[in-house]
Write a structure and sequence with these properties.
Involved in chromosome partition. Localize to both poles of the predivisional cell following completion of DNA replication. This is Chromosome partitioning protein ParA. It comes from Novosphingobium silvae. It is built from 11 helices and 7 strands. About 40% of the residues lie in helices and about 15% in strands. A hairpin with a 5-residue loop joins strand 3 and strand 4. A 7-stranded mixed β-sheet has the order 3-4-2-5-1-6-7, with helices on both faces. It has a single domain, classed as P-loop containing nucleotide triphosphate hydrolases (Rossmann fold). It is of the alpha/beta class. Magnesium ion (MG) binds next to helix 1.
Amino acid sequence: MIRIAIANQKGGVGKTTTAINVATALAATGWKTLLIDLDPQGNASTGVGVSASAREASSYDVLVDRVPVSQCVMSTRIPGLDLLPATVDLSGAEVELVNADDRAHRLQRALRAPDLGYDVCLIDCPPSLGLLTLNALTAADTLLVPLQCEFFALEGLSQLLTTVERVQQRFNPDLGIIGIALTMFDRRNRLTEQVSEDVRSCLGQLIFETTIPRNVRLSEAPSHGVPALIYDHACAGSRAYMALARELITRLPEKRIAA
Ligand code: ADP
Ligand code: MG
């Protein structure tokens, strides 16, 4: 199983939208996919049609009470896509785990269970670099960073990359960065165009060729409880996420790793 964390400590940059739609695209290509919601806000869970009242076991149980992942996942209406949902109690997990020696490794250990049966899992992180994101980065093989094309984008990115280095040194020497996806690109806005050019000249290959446009269908889909890829598979946002998923697959060291 390939484990991909989707992280950026800034809120509202497109992490959850990316997690939901890339997960859906991967599932559509036939990969058994697990979406892990690690944000107490639970937007990824809602976005794949699992309302708060439908969630029983959750990522909180896995992290805090060490319940096996297999006992906490739910299927979704999307064929090939399962969900480990988040519940609001996850917001207390960082405090509850503060004295646990293995607090950074809880998710890593949980995902090493041999019988999970997924080809890939995507971990949607909360907007901070706290213990939940640390668990995701420690558990992951690689990191996908959604980056909004705006003025302070690069500053936030350097902080994230410093965190990645620390995680590599202390917790997970094998953590890679599969790429940075530019999100909410608006070609009519000079600033986003400029930021996109700057970021590409600065970070080169690390940036995915696919850029995600600002697209209203992407923001409408969650209120219908379906990924944009299903809500309107032909819209510009959906097509961009399909292209991003294809690019992601070509960047993975092995096309498909047996579960
Ligand atoms: P994060 O998880 O980083 O906080 P979200 O994915 O939840 O970010 O996105 C923040 C808001 O912006 C949401 O309301 C979402 O629907 C919307 N959004 C995300 N990506 C796009 C896009 N490319 N175009 C338009 N709206 C978007
Ligand atoms: Mg989010």
